Amino acid sequence: MAGTTVNSAAERRAVRSQANLALGILKRWGTIIVIVLVGLLFAVLSPYFGTVSNFNNILFSMIVSALVSMGLTYVVAAGSFDLSIGVVVTTVSITTALLIPHTGWELAIIGALVVACAIGLVNGLLVTYARLSGIVSTLGMMFVLGGINQYLTNGYQVPVDYGQVAFRFLGQGRLGPIGFPVILLAAVFVLGHILSTRSRAGHYIGAVGDNPMAAYYSGILVYRWVIVAFILSALFAGIGGVILTSISSSAQPVGGEGYLLEAFAAVFLGATILGKGKPHLLGTLLGVFFLYMVSSGMNMVGISFATRQLFNGLVLILAVGANALLNREEIHLKFI
Amino acid sequence: METPLIELREVRKDFSGVHVLKGISLSFRQGEIHGLLGENGAGKSTLIKILTGVYAPSSGEILLEGKPVTIHLPIDAHRLGLGAVYQDSELAGSFTVADNIVLGNEPGGILLDRGAMRREAVAIMEQIGLDIDPGRRASTLTAAEMQMVTLATLFHRRYKLIILDEPTARLSAPETRLLFGLIERFRREGITIIYISHRLNEVKELCDRATILRDGLVSGTLEREEIDEDVVTQLMVNRSSAELDISNPGLAQSQVILELQDLSTDRLRPLSIRLRAGEILGVTGPLGAGMEQIERSLGGLGAYRGTISIDGRVCDIGSPAKARAAGIALIPEDRRKQALFPNLSLGENVTLPALGDLSRVGLIGHGRARRYARSVVERLGILPDAPERAMRYFSGGNQQKAVIGKWLKREARAYVFVEPTSGVDVGAIRQIYEIILELARNGAVVIVISTSVKELLALSETIAVIHHGAISALLPRVKFTRDSLLAATISATAPAAVAEPTAA
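The joint structure predicted for all components is written out below.
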């Protein structure tokens, strides 16, 4: 390797700066390039993939997952973990379905979201004032809620009356060609994005996650913003739960757990988008989109579910791994 | 007389029955730079932690502008405008300089006004004369820049009292000048500065008054013109400074142990040097100019080109484990983070590298480990003599001894010390110097990387000055005087009296 060609210093510098430029571009746009290429690949392989209706389908199928993932983004940005979000979807869904006959759908939704916020609040209190780790306390919360879900439903699904037209519109309605829940998702995303990039809350959550000590000495109420992050996480998962109830006109006693792993995949995949190296809402949304796009594409091409799972796992490891290589720290000694 | 900004009255602090502060009465005037000196364990850091709300005092009163205040939490101190800049600056790495400066006090309501944030930060930076791109991410700043940005953040928060704890420990001479300029501006703005340093020259130059703590009590407060090495040392340790003088009598033997051949890194130009058994090489220069590259290469912390040989054998030093196997011991500056396990006991810390020798069939012999720990503690004079005590409760000097203790069993061929006495009290400095000289006397090569001229003159047999990634002077210690070495450090010129370097 060494000494094969003797370049002049200037040439070597030029080569190096070109390499740096390429690396910079790769870091920033690498994940997006991969997403686009994979999309193009499926469009070539299947005539039905690249259609507007399929795009709509992908968006529609990812709604709940996207909401859960976006919520998780705040907690990861604050430097913690929330393993309870999947079950929160189920709990909120059950609460909504149970409340509708008694309170009407509007109050049922409000009540269910209040429950979600309360769960987030408890999670937040546990990791701050009670000094538990995020992983442990939200793992505990996951089991507690799983038990409560069983008690509430006796293991049976809770149907929503077919006459709840307005409620069903939330998940099943359409405005022109676009599904209403897709519009809801877009609205929540825009609000969430402003919250995380423009608001004091988002700024402080980022500061706390980056350097809690600096935040503390800056007079930022660190615990408050960690708690806010957990509440946002549960609230977003709760919105997902409400929409899920509307989509399926019922609440299932189990099943929300699946969103948890997708959400983590999306958040960490999303952190590599635009080379930010830390979770951000746009990245998370694109991450979810990528997972569902691949799923849809493989489905159309006729690839089995098992292969799709395998592929998703590999993509996550590769994307995050490539990003870690590009953002290489000199010594790596963190194993969480 | 005008009301002092802060007045402490009979402040005491006990930790489970141990009296650390035994009744401190002290006042800090508005707009003064007040030096705080004292051996480690004298109570300086406890006092600071009480002022910044990390600890609550056991008894006593604190008055701010004449009114009693309670400071039980850091947030209380923050609200009262009392703050500290710690040695490792606290900035959010992924935030920009501007974001960091206004952090916690951003203009705007629920939504932030990014334009106003930047304008405010730029105005602050102009006011205090800080020339850094406000859009730079904090993680890309040098240690000195970080410290100055931290100062800017405190300035922005309109702190009345700023405590600087060894602010120049990691700064080079030009950076120190910049920092002093900044501190002067703060004084003119009426901000009170408490300046903690082990460097008396800085205190003499900068401070209006200086208080010396000893053993949890105020041992004296001096006006600027009274600050004098002999007086200060006397107040500090009850011992005149003449006694502290120590020097290397010339311990080098003939046999070459460590040879660096064309050692270079991206920030260090090829460097060749041979070091003999018992030789102590002092390395100095402005921080970031290359001397830290030697420590990184020899400690296995970074890639290097060229060869490093020990006892004539070329060694591959690609990681700290390989450096250790090759017989190189690195005693880093940031002991708490890089060399010690703060929550393990002193005994566990010093026995850790020797566990192999203290084990039988893979199991640690606890009795033997205990005896070994005790022998290390005794040999190095670590105080308090309590091997069961968690490492973090020991003072800086005793922590440094413990790091050296980690290597005693393994008998390294070469020891690399980085700022061996930063954060170490005067009393312990002498002991650490003696330990270092003893290592050389036993035939090891010692490299001391330090920004303290006095330290190098005391310890070294040979001195290298590094500027801009290249050696600008490499001479025997006797060719240097205090002034000429200081000049060589500041200005990148070899002492005029000697035409060319002697070592190969």
